Amino acid sequence: VVPLFLSNHFSSLAEIMEDSIGGLAQTILDALSAAQLQAWIHQAGLGHDMEMLEMELEIVDMGYAAVRERLTGNKEPLVRSLARLKDLLYDADDLVDDLDFYRLLDRPTAGGSSVVRHEDTPIQSTYADLFIDSPTTDSSDNALGEQEDIFGAVQVHEKSTGDMDIVSSQVGKRRLSAISEHYELVDQDGNDCRVKCIHCGSEPMVGCGLSQSQLRRHIKTVHYENKKRAAEFSNDTHNALREQEDIFGAVLVDKKSRRDINIQSRQGGKMRSPVWKHFVISETDENNRPVKAKCVHCDSELNCGPKHGTSGLKRHIRSAGCTKKKEAADQPLTPSSSADGIENVETVAIGDSHSRKRIRMDDESTCGAKPETHLWNKAGFLQRIKEITRRLQDISGFLSKVLKLHGSDFVASSNRYRSITSDQHLRTSSVVPRKVYGRVTEKDYIIKFMTEDKPDGSYVLPIVGSAGVGKTALAQLVYNDPTIAEHFEQRIWVSVSNNFDELRLSREILDCVSQQTHAGLCSFAKLQEVLKMHITSKRVLLILDDVWDDFNFRRWSQLLAPLQCNTKGTVILLTTQKLSVAQIVGTVEPIKLRSLPYDDFWLLFKSCAFGDENYERNQNLSIIGLQIVKKLKGNPLAAATVGKLLRRSLTIDHWYNILKNEDWKSVQLSGGIMSALKLSYDQLPYNLQQCFSFCSLFPEKYQFLDEELVQIWIAQGFVKCDNSSKTLEEKGFDYLADLVNLGFFQQVEREETDPNSQPCYIMCDLMHDLAREVSRTEFATIDGVQYCEMLPTIRHLSIVSDSGYNTDQHENIPRSKKLEKKMLAGCTSLRKLRTLVFIAHYDMFFYKLFQDILRQAHNLRLLQISAASAGLNPLLCSSVNFTHLRYLKVEAADGLGALPQILSKFCHLQVLHVGSCTKPTIPVRIDHIVGLRHLVTEEGAYSSIANIGNLTSLQELPNFVVQNSSGFEITQLQSMKELVRLGVSHLENVKTREEAYGAGLREKHHLKELHLSWEVALSDDEYRRDMSSCTDQLSAEVIEGFEPHNNLKHLWISGYNGNLSPSWLANSISLQTLHIEGCGKLEILPSFEQLPFLRKLKLTEMPSMTEVSIPSLEELVLIQMPKLERFSCISTKDLNSNLRVLKIQRCPAMNIFPLFQSSQKFKIEQKSWLPSLRELTIHGCPNLLVSHPLPPSTTISKLSIVDVPTLPRIEISPGDTLTIGSRSEGYDNFDPSSDVMTILDCKILAFHNLRGLRYLRIDGCQNLVSISFTGLGELISLRSLEICSCRKLFSSNVIPEHTREDVTAAKCPRGIVFRGLPGDNSVSRRGRKHSILWFLIIRRSR
């Protein structure tokens, strides 16, 4: 039922519900299409009822789509039905998820250890696997229900490859494991054998002449024919009572005829006996009449033809044997839709008497709860299925009546509606509607770009920003500027909007330049010719405002072809919300427009609210206005929106109510900021809308880690697979990139400096407010201070307590009973919750109060608890229902200790996040969670997981330790084909190449990062012992067995003892990063010419390597390579241009590095030296000559030079500080090269690359006698210069004459004072006024 509080928002509510209904229905249908679930449902005897439910889902989805397309204007009549339909679809989704949960419990076991195969994992098999001994089938194998079950099983094996191999010469009743349900092996002749189809009796030959795929196609044909005959019979029984409507392809079937689809008789519509609900027709005669039927309870097959009737069926149902099995199958259990969640599953029995399996689950419980036994309750599920089906029929009947009631009038109104709403974007013009505040810097930059001399041609400058930020206003300012009007002979303004039509745009451009209309000209080619004629030899400015379409470059080129032919040049200024548009068409870097500065925004706000930017009369209103301004995030359209509301009444009450209710956030406000932002939201695909709305649960400016955010979206089912080869995670990152491109998210820099840290994102400006607005019916946040009542439709809830709990002086969290009471009072209607997020700190009293919430939220998919307290594990164990949970994140500052064993029963869990800083104790049987995609914990915890190979969906395994014990063999990796990141250590325990091949790295197509590690010896003696146990040849053979797939991008090899690199390394064509460390005998690396994408190379602790040849790189690191003498580049020119990070440390034999030789060739080629370098480190290279002054470029952010001849010690640290020489405070940093330097000039220091330097310190240069003050004069940003312990600098009582002249000629700063000079305590020189050095201190050591 739709709550009354929404009665005034029916239109917006309907819009919010519309996409979600279609998305929900498709999600359920996708889940039901999974082959393993289909097969299990038929095995459990629910196939017929679930088919009915699936059909109703499809019908109601089509019917809803038809009604939605036609119903316009006031949608109030639909809203309540839409709300009921949405609730019902959620119930159906929970039902399907429950069934899948029990499917996972009903999985094969071996030796008491449960092994589950996830449906996403392809099952590989050959003939050696497929033939198994089996008893001869009986007549019941012909049952239609079992045929469909087997057909589902066949689909699971669709990816099986290769022809079948004959494994036995014995002739007998043997069958194929996947095909065995349909064939018997009856004869064999050499490499061929003859099998018999148990359905049609045909006997095809198998082997060289016939493959598995052909056998499957034959079975599918037989299955299809049987199913078709059954469907034809079913249709004949109720065609007379079925009503159909076919409006725009939507078919709605009368609910009564569908409800009774299987209880009709062929004779004149006579009702069939209710006994048929216990049977499935398994055989029909030539007239499609039922001959045999199969009992869904005991699998018995009975005759039911015209001669027998249904009396035999009734007697069978009442028989003791069938009744006993029926009762056994209907033992009570607690499904997830009941009041209490399943807390301990001990034994589950599902299926018929032949296939029923019993699974022993974990009987351990950290809570001390008494284990319970929950058996399969088939009757309960049947009741739920039929109830949902009946309610879907009711709703589809309502939709059918709506279509009948309005009839063809819907079509006309729909067409009118589409013509009106096809382009909701406002058209713009070049006229500035009001004064524009701010944007002076951006305007000046654009005008300078447009008017400066540049080669002829067309230039495209994009302006990118979110809705309402002022893109159009800035373009109008530029367009109307007198300088622009004088510079361009022709100015053109075209409003593009969301309809990129080349014909329309060409006509509008032509109308502007010709002063005539060309409405009758419909030929695009002719328009282009006329346009070219009008603009030839003219300097043209074209404004394309509000571009939306991500059109391809060909369409763009076609539109602008006449302008590009202009000999005087064309400048195009383009405004868009999409960064992708700017990237496609822009020829220069786009201007990314941000919020207005506070001062400009305050003036704009006063102008909008009071009509006067200088208004000062009512200070009380100004105080309220300042509070409102803080909420508007500097968005000009937001100021205009709220100003329009405030000007209605300049009273304190009116303004305060608007502040309190935040009325400007209403999407119903025509022309308001939220309606403008919602236009962007409405154009998102439904999946992206879900991802965006979910983030409303988190506080404003919350920093989302990209990997974590994508994992959440996947766990919630928002990320959908398509037919591409991309993983769910790759699709999720595509979703995030799209949201960033459209301005919904913005990437920000993290405070952490860890280079391996994940990228971080926040919601841009007012986008968080938009997310709250569009998601308010299902997403809610309860804040400790801002209490809000939880709506009954809420399914996703976050509880934020930062403002309510504060730690005391002992870092403990004091209890806040008031806050607990307030927050718990808002938590109602918890049964529907799918998400529960706790943000910030809570005490254990609070968590104990929330045990009831966790118990009631038995449909929970995601639970996240930040800053958890000690002792939370038992709470989780006793409270969380594990039937549906996909995502569990629990973090505690002091660690979680031993994780509860009950976690191994979370069959649907995809993400378990327990923090990466502390090492928890992993549950013994965590390998049972076969759907687990991400286990986020400390790396050492992975080594304790036995049989980790059962986790076939796992994406990351950073530390698999090979051990010589069961469950930890290298072959555990073979089945983990979904791995993206893998680290394998202790490879000395792998003894043969065959063992290494057993890891199956070559088959891991998604593997992107691989780390292969042998145990590194700690001393020479240990190294020799290691060599004695693992010879060079053995190491080389083993590493050959670890050949990865060609998709590998990042490779680390450490501790490898062979002297040859693996042969596959040179063929790893996708490799981007190569890190080789501690490989003591490795002498030669392969040529990297065949690795076109290699960008980072790091070689560390390589004592035997003497020569390295590298390609063009972005990062090069060489550390502790004592014999490395020669270094060559495949392309010195490319390396010089691309290199960003260079580190060379402890390479005493190196004397030549190509980029450090004479820079003459760079000058000849007019190329700068290392123009892109960001970081340069050279330590401990006493023979390496550097012929260039440092730093090499203005882009340098970190520079460290120690123990390099001809150069003193140089350090550039963050904060724009440069230190030259050793610290005088101690001798730990003593550098002999600093003592060698006598003159500090432009041959050592590139002063022109240090114009941003603020602090300079020269320390401990004992023989320094001269400093180039001319060079110092180039340090225009210098604030402080300090010279210490330079004995020979100014050693006499009088400054040397050449130094005095140099100081005067160098435009030295005013008021320089040299302190500490003997005999002259106040030598001062005055220079040019523009210098800004504040002080200089020179200390003379004694």
Describe this entry's structure for a reader.
This protein has 1342 residues and is α/β, with parallel strands linked by helices. Helix content is 34%, strand content 16%. The strands form 13 sheets. It has a 15-stranded mixed beta sheet, with no helix packed on it. A hairpin with a 3-residue loop joins strand 42 and strand 43 (1217-1220). Helix 1 runs antiparallel to helix 3, helix 3 (47-70) runs parallel beside helix 11 and helix 26 packs across helix 27 (728-741). It is globular, with a radius of gyration of 38 Å. This is BED-type domain-containing protein. Keywords: Metal-binding, Plant defense, Zinc, Zinc-finger. Pfam families: LRR_R13L1-DRL21, NB-ARC, WHD_DRP, zf-BED. InterPro entries: Disease_R_plants, LRR_dom_sf, LRR_R13L1-DRL21, NB-ARC, P-loop_NTPase, WH-like_DNA-bd_sf, WHD_DRP, Znf_BED.
Secondary structure class reads alpha/beta
Mean pLDDT: 74
Number-wise, the strands total 50
What is the 3D shape? globular
Adjacency order of strands in the biggest sheet? 30-31-32-33-34-35-37-39-40-41-42-43-45-47-50
How much helix is in the residues? 25-40%
Unreliable stretches, pLDDT < 50, 5 or more residues? Answer: 1-11, 109-179, 226-271, 328-374, 408-423, 1298-1334
Count every helix, treating DSSP H or I runs of 4 or more residues as helices: 40
Using only C-alpha atoms, the radius of gyration works out to 38 Å
Distance between the termini: 89 Å
> How can the largest sheet be summarized?
15 strands, mixed
**Percent strand:** 15-25%
